[in-house]
Write a structure and sequence with these properties.
The protein is α/β, with parallel strands linked by helices and about 550 residues long. The chain has three domains: about 1-60, Beta-grasp domain (Ubiquitin-like (UB roll), Roll), CATH 3.10.20.30; about 65-220, Threonyl-trna Synthetase, Chain A, domain 2 (Threonyl-tRNA Synthetase, Chain A, domain 2, 2-Layer Sandwich); about 225-320 and about 395-540, no CATH class. It has helices at about 20-25, 65-85, 90, 115-130, 140-150, 155-160, 225-240, 245-255, 255-280, 295-310, 350-360, 435-450, 455-470, 490-500, 510-520, 540; strands at about 1-5, 10-15, 35-40, 40-45, 55-60, 95-100, 105-110, 135-140, 170-175, 175-180, 195-200, 205, 285-290, 315-320, 365-370, 375-385, 390-395, 410-420, 480-485. A five-stranded mixed sheet has the order 2-1-5-3-4, with helices on one face. A five-stranded parallel sheet has the order 14-17-13-18-19. A four-stranded antiparallel sheet has the order 6-7-12-11, sandwiched between helices.
């Protein structure tokens, strides 16, 4: 007799059965599919066997763990379909590159998928889903996995496993197709019901529903400038042979890490110099800089200022924060808390009048927002825009034309900065840009504000919701886009963030996110900071910057 608890309700079973069988006993009660189960605080796939006294709750698509498993499974089916359909060997070697607007871009080196390819791939995906084929999990020794990957010329997997201490590795198998995934997949192909596949550029886009409208795939809206930046970063890491973790670990193990840091920092310095030249050539008097949290906006702004100075201009920095309305008038969110991410926090009329007067050559008293009292103050500091001066304005709303409505768009030079992940775990397992920035923020919050990792993770959803409303919709207003991510940085950040993540209460909701981040970081060898310049963007997070970024 086996006793289990489903949502704290006791049930008795005559025999030990799988969670899949348990789920089938309850699925009629729910509108949506049960994708995974939480068992005693641990996420389990449905093919696992239950144990006596298991406490079980169900995971659906509206849970990030369920959605991520759904997406991984759909991608597994898609890669299997490409393998089955494409005759050309290059076309079979599909790689998961990056995301755009929550859609996934897949392409192959030296191959462009045709419209006919896409149609045939879609047919094969639908066929596999309709057959309700069980996805098998295969556990093998790490040594065997390394040899198998080497024989198949899967160098990204071979080098990934080379630096793993675990004795076993799990693969997933669908018919004759085998692939590696570091986290959970669903029970069979029939669980994938809602998705959209289309051709984009030389590759394939697959999109899925969000966690609210779970039966309607997100409509793909290309962001061409972001795409160009992502491709440039991809080409850069490919040239350096560091586009996956295994190759990065090889460089660390072979004592080539310092060289990599110097090359990466030189590349970023070159890009910032190019942007400064574009600003100079534009002859525009105002630069607006925006980007999501932990993208390194402050360090970037300082470094851009130095490049602009070398061209003979004098940059003057204005913070939008100093134009906030008094806190008592700030808008509130649905929970009654102050919504500091809202555009309504900015005194728009005062801000725009200020800019117009500056552009007309007036000498103006500078405002200073006191975050302790929540009021705007003036401390006898003045500014004036001289012929060689140029304004740099940084803030989350900077690319939203509503914030600077009085300034003609032709007079603005807009820069969007984001940490677009340059490195993947392997060719079919990516690291999300959101997780990348969250790791940065955990380290900085702890160092600068004394926050623990649990506090930062708890607020992360709210931060992201603000970005979705106030930052991401205006990316395409940028004249240039700067990718602030560094291909080497997770090997450095892991040293700082792992102790903070392990310190999170294991029974807390936040530890689910912490565990995912720890799993990602476990693939990286730790690097050393010796070669990191003191003006590097990563210094904004780990400290010891020579720039005034406080």
């Amino acid at each position: 007799m086996y006793i289990i608890y489903i949502n704290d309700e006791k049930f008795e079973l005559e025999n030990q059965i799988t969670y899949y069988e348990i789920v089938n006993m309850f699925k009629e009660k729910y509108e949506n599919d049960i994708l995974l189960v939480n068992v005693n605080g641990q996420t389990k796939e449905l093919n696992a066997l239950c144990k006596n006294n298991d406490r079980i709750s169900f995971i659906f698509y509206d849970n990030p763990l369920g959605r991520e498993a759904y997406i991984r499974t759909a991608l597994f089916i898609l890669f299997k379909s490409i393998f089955d359909v494409i005759d050309n060997e290059f076309g079979k070697q599909a790689i998961l590159r990056f995301t755009q607007n929550d859609a996934y871009f897949i392409s192959a080196n030296n191959y462009e998928y045709t419209d006919l390819d896409i149609e045939n791939i879609k047919k094969r995906v639908n066929e596999l889903i309709s057959k309700k084929i069980k996805i098998e999990k295969i556990v093998t020794s790490t040594n065997f996995a390394i040899k198998y990957s080497k024989n198949k010329n899967l160098n990204d997997i071979e080098f990934l496993f080379k630096y793993r201490l675990y004795s076993n590795i799990k693969y997933y198998k669908l018919e004759n197709y085998v692939n590696y995934y570091y986290d959970h997949l669903l029970y069979d192909t029939s669980y994938i019901k809602y998705y959209n596949i289309l051709k984009y550029k030389s590759g394939i886009i697959i999109s899925f529903p969000d966690i609210i409208n779970i039966k309607i795939p997100i409509s793909f809206k290309p962001i061409n400038r972001v795409f160009e930046t992502q491709i440039e970063s991809l080409n850069w890491t490919t040239r350096l042979n560091t586009n996956t973790v295994g190759f990065l670990n090889e460089k660390i193990a072979k004592n080539e890490f310092n060289d990599l840091i110097i090359m990466q920092e030189s590349f970023q310095e070159k890009k910032i110099g190019e942007i400064a030249n574009k600003v100079f050539d534009s002859k525009k008097k105002i630069i607006f800089i925006a980007g999501p949290t932990s993208s390194g906006k402050t360090t970037f702004s300082h470094r851009l200022s130095y490049h602009i100075k070398t061209l003979g201009l004098n940059p003057i920095t204005l913070s939008v924060d100093n134009f906030f309305i008094d806190r008592q008038f700030s808008p509130r969110d649905e929970n009654g808390d102050y919504d500091f991410e809202s555009l309504e926090n900015v005194d728009l009329k005062y801000f725009n009048d200020f800019l117009i007067k500056l552009l007309n050559g007036e000498k103006l008293l500078l405002p200073k927002f006191n975050f302790i009292t929540g009021k705007r103050e003036f401390k006898n500091e003045y500014t004036k825009l001289n012929p060689n001066d140029i304004l740099i304005i940084e803030g989350i709303h900077s690319l939203n034309n509503k914030m600077s409505y009085a300034i003609n768009n032709d007079d603005k030079f807009n820069i969007y900065i984001s940490a677009l992940t340059q490195i993947a775990i392997d060719n079919h397992n990516r690291i999300s840009t959101s997780d990348f920035r969250l790791i940065r923020r955990i380290v900085r919050d702890n160092r600068e504000r004394g926050f623990n990792a649990q506090d930062t993770i708890r607020l992360w959803d709210k931060v992201q919701n603000g970005e979705m409303q106030n930052i991401f919709p205006y990316q395409e207003n940028a004249n240039v886009i700067f990718n602030s991510s560094l291909v080497y940085e997770l090997s450095i950040l892991k040293i700082y963030v792992e102790p903070l993540l392990f310190n999170i209460d294991r029974d807390s909701v936040e530890f689910i996110t912490a565990k995912r981040l720890l799993k990602i970081l476990s693939f990286f060898l730790a690097g050393t900071e010796n070669a990191i310049p003191k003006y590097s963007i990563i210094r904004e997070f780990i400290g010891n910057s020579i720039l005034n970024i406080s």
